[in-house]
Amino acid sequence: MLQRMKSSASRTEPMSTYRSRRPPERLRFGAANDAPVPNGELLTSRDGTPLLIRPIHADDVAALQRGFSRLQPEEVRMRFLHTLTELPDQLAQRLCRLDPEQELAFVLVDRAESTEPEIYGVARAYIDTNTDGAEFALIVQRRFTGQGFGSRLLNRVIDACRVRGVQEIWGDVLAENHAMLDLCDEFGFRRESVFHDASLTRVRLHL
Length: 207
Ligand SMILES: CC(C)(COP(=O)(O)OP(=O)(O)OC[C@H]1O[C@@H](n2cnc3c(N)ncnc32)[C@H](O)[C@@H]1OP(=O)(O)O)[C@@H](O)C(=O)NCCC(=O)NCCS
Prior knowledge:
Layout: H1 2-8, E1 36-37, E2 40-44, E3 50-55, H2 61-69, H3 73-80, H4 89-96, E4 103-110, E5 119-128, E6 133-140, H5 149-163, E7 168-174, H6 178-187, E8 190-193, E9 200-206
Parallel strand pairs: 6-7
Antiparallel strand pairs: 1-2, 2-3, 3-4, 4-5, 5-6, 7-9, 8-9
Helix pairs in contact: 2-4
């Protein structure tokens, strides 16, 4: 499946011609309702769960904390580069109430209208207006990994950063985190070692 795509979007393509990465075909399962909604993207997971990608809301605090509580310690360590047993209120508020000048974030949520949303994935970026660079972060809860949602969330962050004139996004990834490093390879990020910490790999993508 992806082979076909890679041949059309060869890895060796220079990074300056980044092209948003189409999710793997399998994601197209249930594509019928994949129509963009204002600021959101309707999706269906392999197990038929109706999902949506949308910008984070200031009142997503409790949903973000519930989402965090569903993560395995290993997922948390991969995302935050250290162990974290809970998402304290202040941090959760900080992660939802963004400074629109320098921050953006998108969430993968279920589409249950009736109840409070459940968050299953988050991608965010912190823009450094001095360097026109942005540090990004990404997480998809294990229940929904391997279905292209991580790529879609990262695409939203990359597109939103481009609109704001960001020249490059970067992130530090644990060197053992093959899932994330493979994803970054797919997008054309280049890898660098981090001189002060051999357990990390820095990934950079010129936009
Ligand atoms: C890394 C992560 C975000 C990937 O999310 P995802 O939704 O599974 O990603 P996608 O389905 O879009 O996968 C895209 C590509 O990533 C790579 N990838 C994803 N999961 C992988 C895995 N388990 N092993 C190896 N490569 C993997 C593959 O190259 C994949 O392409 P393919 O599906 O065509 O093979 C997710 O596993 C995660 O949240 N991990 C824990 C937190 C974390 O590591 N965050 C990054 C911190 S820097």
